[in-house]
């Protein structure tokens, strides 16, 4: 059966490897030589390259260049091939499927052991393992080619580079109808495409994020250092190295400002508030819950407790728990959607501080503009990694959000409460 690096943990130390190889030297010296070379160069998958432990239908791996996405996808697919599965490989073009997913240094052939290498049948555009498992190659340039075939599992690579991502993904999913648990892995460097945002919001999708630095041990030593010196703090670096979805047109919050807003949490804070952006319906948008503190003339983002799919009592309890954990002096909640109901459910959760209802009288962009100015001034700092929050901030004003920016809305309310009173509002001048 096909095996990959994780099946060979016990063989990777020299003593065990030599003992095992000596058992086959007499009968197959050629094979022993190949196996020795392959086993010594195989590396164990990093934690971010392993499938999520929780049940999932689609595993979406968003990573920077060199983060190990291809290795993760190929290793997972080899595991599916051990049962003789019928598989699908989809890349931006046929060339990408063969040169990256199959023949590449982290592809399916490289990760299979020498005596279990799959063979490529060019005429049928398929990869066949000795146990009968078969992986068919498809180009995302031709979604209709996925009509008819059926599979147990599929690996889709560089989804954001597909010319018709939505159409192709739909056709692929219609074919995942074999076995008891058909699943899909999608690996890609993220770009601000609607199709990706729709995919991220789907139920049953488990998301893994990894920047290039997560796989630094397997990259050329100067690679990250050189790129960081050239592009560090730019939108290009955020997208290609950090694996962050970066909006480019009309966004209020710049990647450069977000890249330099990192800071340690102060030992003491003057005030802490928990802002809540309630969902319109229980099963719809997420409930934005963001914790922000103030020290002197700066705001510090402390936590993002945003959650999806909670009942009113559920999100109220979560917000109150955050207020207790951070010793907040106020719960600031938007009341446009729920009015007094918002105050009522928060009160029932027994908050440790006062509840302040706020109502939006202008649009999201207008509310966010003064907060974006504070980021530009370096007066809002993030005490941790808040990737999903930063993606929503960069999307504000772009007109390309597929869902309500709940995290970003909550942050805007929190920072406004702490920093944008009459005496603190930043002065903006039209040029």
Report on the structure:
The chain has 431 residues and is an alpha/beta fold. The protein folds into two domains: 1-246, P-loop containing nucleotide triphosphate hydrolases (Rossmann fold, 3-Layer(aba) Sandwich), CATH 3.40.50; 255-419, Nucleotidyltransferase, domain 5 (2-Layer Sandwich), CATH 3.30.420.320. The chain is 34% helix and 18% strand. The chain contains 15 helices and 14 strands. The protein has helices at residues 14-22, 29-41, 69-81, 94-102, 108-111, 165-174, 194-201, 221-231, 235-240, 255-259, 312-325, 340-348, 364-376, 387-395, 406-419; strands at 58-63, 86-91, 119-121, 126-128, 134-139, 153-157, 183-188, 205-210, 271-277, 288-295, 298-304, 330-334, 354-358, 380-382. The protein has an eight-stranded mixed beta sheet, sandwiched between helices. Strands 13-12-9-10-11-14 form a six-stranded mixed beta sheet, sandwiched between helices. Helix 12 (340-348) links the parallel strand 12 (330-334) and strand 13. It is elongated and about 75 Å long.
DSSP helical segment count? 15
Domain count: 2
Our estimate of the beta-strand percent is 15-25%
The major beta sheet can be summarized as: 8 strands, mixed
CATH superfamily of the largest domain: P-loop containing nucleotide triphosphate hydrolases
Overall geometry: elongated
Could you name the ranges where pLDDT drops below 50 across 5 or more consecutive residues? 5-14, 39-43, 423-431
Oligomer: single chain
Helix content: 25-40%
Q: How many beta-strand segments?
A: 14
In whole angstroms, the N-to-C terminal distance is 68 Å
**What's the SSE pattern?**
HHEHEHHEEEEHEHEHHHEEEHEHEHEHH
Task: Predict the CATH topology of the largest domain.
Answer: Rossmann fold
**Structural class of the helix and strand makeup?**
alpha/beta
Major β-sheet strand ordering? 3-4-5-2-6-7-1-8
CATH class (first level) name of the largest domain: Alpha Beta
CATH architecture of the largest domain: 3-Layer(aba) Sandwich
Mean pLDDT: 81
Rg calculated over all Cα atoms: 25 Å
Protein name: DNA-packaging protein
Organism: Caulobacter segnis
InterPro entries: P-loop_NTPase (IPR027417), Terminase_6C (IPR035421)
Keywords: Viral release from host cell
């Amino acid at each position: 059966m096909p095996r990959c690096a994780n099946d060979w943990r016990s063989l990777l130390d020299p003593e065990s490897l030599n003992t095992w190889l000596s058992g086959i030297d007499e009968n197959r010296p050629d094979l022993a030589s190949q196996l020795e070379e392959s086993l010594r160069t195989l590396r164990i998958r990093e934690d971010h390259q392993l499938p999520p432990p929780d049940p999932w239908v689609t595993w979406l791996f968003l990573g920077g260049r060199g983060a190990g996405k291809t290795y993760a996808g190929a290793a997972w697919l080899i595991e599916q091939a051990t049962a003789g599965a019928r598989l699908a490989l989809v890349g931006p073009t046929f060339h990408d499927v063969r040169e990256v997913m199959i023949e590449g240094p982290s592809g399916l052939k490289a990760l299979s052991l020498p005596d279990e290498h799959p063979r490529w049948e060019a005429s049928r555009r398929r990869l066949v393992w000795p146990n009968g498992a078969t992986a068919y190659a498809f180009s995302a340039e031709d979604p209709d080619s996925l009509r008819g075939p059926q599979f147990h599992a599929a690996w889709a690579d560089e989804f954001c580079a597909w010319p018709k991502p939505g159409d192709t993904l739909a056709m692929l999913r219609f074919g995942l109808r074999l076995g008891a648990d058909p699943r899909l892995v999608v690996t890609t460097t993220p770009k601000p495409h609607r199709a990706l945002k729709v995919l991220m919001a789907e139920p049953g999708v488990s998301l893994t994020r990894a920047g290039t630095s997560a796989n630094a041990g397997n990259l050329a030593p100067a690679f990250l250092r050189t790129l960081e010196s050239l592009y560090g703090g730019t939108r290009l670096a955020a997208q290609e190295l950090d694996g962050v979805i970066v909006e480019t047109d009309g966004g209020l919050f710049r990647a450069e400002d977000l890249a330099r807003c990192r800071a340690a949490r102060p030992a003491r804070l003057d005030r802490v508030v928990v802002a809540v952006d309630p969902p319109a319906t229980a099963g719809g948008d997420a409930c934005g819950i963001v914790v922000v503190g103030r020290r002197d003339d700066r705001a510090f983002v402390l936590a993002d407790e945003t959650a999806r799919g909670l009942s009113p009592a559920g999100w109220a309890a979560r917000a109150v728990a955050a207020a207790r954990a951070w010793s907040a002096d106020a719960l600031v909640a938007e009341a446009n959607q729920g009015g007094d109901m918002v105050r009522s459910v928060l009160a029932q959760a027994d908050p440790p501080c006062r509840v302040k209802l706020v109502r939006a009288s202008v649009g999201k962009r207008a509310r966010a503009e003064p907060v974006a100015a504070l980021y530009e001034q370096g007066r809002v700092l993030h005490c941790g990694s808040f990737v999903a929050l930063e993606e929503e901030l960069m999307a504000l004003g772009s007109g390309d959000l597929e869902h309500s920016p709940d995290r970003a809305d909550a942050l805007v309310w929190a920072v406004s409460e702490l920093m944008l009173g009459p005496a603190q509002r930043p002065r903006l001048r039209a040029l």
